[in-house]
Amino acid sequence: MASLVTDCCTLCNDDGTSTEAVRWCIECEVFLCTDCEKHHKKSRMSKAHNTMSTKDYHNLPKFMQEISSQCRDHKKKYELYCSFHACPCCVTCITDKHKKCQEMKPLSDILKQVKSSASVQLFEKDLKDVKENLEEIIKYLNHRINTSTSQKTKAAEQIRSMRKSIDNFLNKLEQEILNDLDSKQSKLKSKMNTLLQQLKTQANQMSQLQSEFSKMTQYATELQMYVGLREIEKTTSEAAKHLEDLKSGGSLDEVNLELTISSELQSILKDVKSFGDININTSPFTLQLKAVRKDQAQYLVHTTPTIEQIKPSLLRHLTIPEDLKNINIHACRILPDVASDGQMLVVSSWEKSTIVNLNDMSQTILEGVVAYRVALFKGNIYGTIYFENKVCCYKSTGEPLWTFMHDDIVNPQGITLDKNGFVYVVSENNNRVVVVSPDGKTCKTILSEADGIRDPWAIDIDRESGIMIVSCKIRVDNDDSDDSDDSKSYETAFCL
């Protein structure tokens, strides 16, 4: 049975013929049959093109098969590389999206470095390390699931054990009070039985005297009657006195058994609302993972500028309307780029700073982090200390990384960072914008009063486009008698 044709020659297919393809042209992005490949190699335009077998082509990952050498927007071949945006460009892209980009290089020069770069082997190691880290975490999580199951079983056993202990304790208390009830009722019964027997004896005696009294009245002589009545009187008087003594002595008082339930025991039903609490306690992750480099793709092509290469050019002045001249701008922002990472909010003051976790709104006070203005970049906190002429960098834990001071920085106010980690500070009292290196060791004044910078207060950078905006305020002498601050605010936009 003949094998199915999986790939057809693109050129033959355009002519309405289905011919099995044997090669793929990387640059033309077409399948070639044996005949078309021969013509392709002979053509002056394509003889230098690299090709691969269709088998090798299908061995490429799916996402790599979809990577085109042509610009999706303009349908033209990529020929240039923008170092600022770290992306390939066609000739139309330059006028469309990269008018202000100065670092444009031939794409062929950039691609020569890729496969020979030592980073390729490092990426292979990173992939291996990440996979091993994932496997370790999966193993760890499975272990945690088993541990939580064991903890559930243990907790259930503790619940049943406590219930059994409570039952045994209540059974013991129950038996003790039942025994006490039985003992006290027995004593009470015995005492009443003794009194009952005494009274029964006297009642029998009275019954006998009643019987004898009838016979006495019928048959006794006068003397016998007299003596007999005296004896009966004595006996009945003694019985009556005995009854009075019993009554007055309390022997005939009503005695009842009464149960009082322990207030502590009753409080169980009133105060105890649950058998206990089931809590989920979190402890720090302690599994040791292999360190993996972050954001390393950019280092395949070394495009990060040096501090000396940072040379902003003026785009436009933005003057605040006259009726709003005294608004005293302390911060500015270029939307949609936002300095927050969406996870953390930093509130700074002269005494301390507070980190707010935006996921659960928990707060962490950083006593050692004091700043006049702050900015965030890759988990670190950057701040200016106005009266000490300092620029500081801290970890999110508050641990200081570096502190920078220089004669070019006098009363620093606003602070921001570009995508490469360079720190931009406005220096109010000497009318400068200063850039500090990411390691906090060197600086360079990139704008001054000659560039229109006067009393700068705030600064921001769009990390995607490289546009920088600086808010300034010019104080104008006022001849009026009042003490009002006659000033004019404006913003200046630059391109890095």
TrEMBL record:
UniProt keywords, alphabetically: Coiled coil
CDD domains tied to this protein: Bbox1
Gene3D superfamilies: Classic Zinc Finger (3.30.160.60), TolB, C-terminal domain (2.120.10.30)
Protein name as annotated: B box-type domain-containing protein
Coiled-coil stretches: 178-212
